[in-house]
What does this fold into?
Amino acid sequence: MIDDVLLDAEERMQKTIDALQRELAGIRTGRAHPGLIERLEVDYYGTATPLNQIAGISAPEARMLVVQPWDRGSLNSIEKAIRGSELGLNPTNDGQLIRITIPPLTEERRKSLVKVVRNTVEENRVAVRNIRRDALSQVKDLLHGKEIGEDDERRAEHQIQELTNRYIGEADEIGKHKENEVLEV
It folds into this structure.
């Protein structure tokens, strides 16, 4: 029973970390990487579709992305989605593919992006703590239902806290790495 609670908590915490990594991949750095735009929603024949599902995205140079749609009819909607995003990118359409030159970030923009990274990491920490709270609640319910003893409860609480510390530490490391990436000139 306790093992089920621990396993569930660990799975949920891992999913939270995975979501953090996906979200941070979309935050712009000085270098071009496909993760920057692959999750942009494009209006594809009336349906909001992630860009990586309708086009190939590559980074042939350090400051350039190339988007090659599988359907040339979607070029204009892809270009519109990139322009409309909060990334501040200006794509050029040559009728076959879209080139996006990544301009260098200003110092002010770098600092604001670091704040975004920190806020995102903090939201992730809160999510991990909420999972801890849920797991502790489940353990308390097991104790009140006389399914486990007090020693088992204390041991489970300790294990849940260790899990929480590990995943919060992992989120902090991911955040520090992204901050360094953003601040890198």
Observations:
- Strands lie at 41-44, 47-50, 55-61, 64-69, 91-93, 98-101.
- The first strand starts at residue 41 and ends at 44.
- Residues 38 and 51 are 5 Å apart (CA to CA).
- The chain has a mean pLDDT of 89.
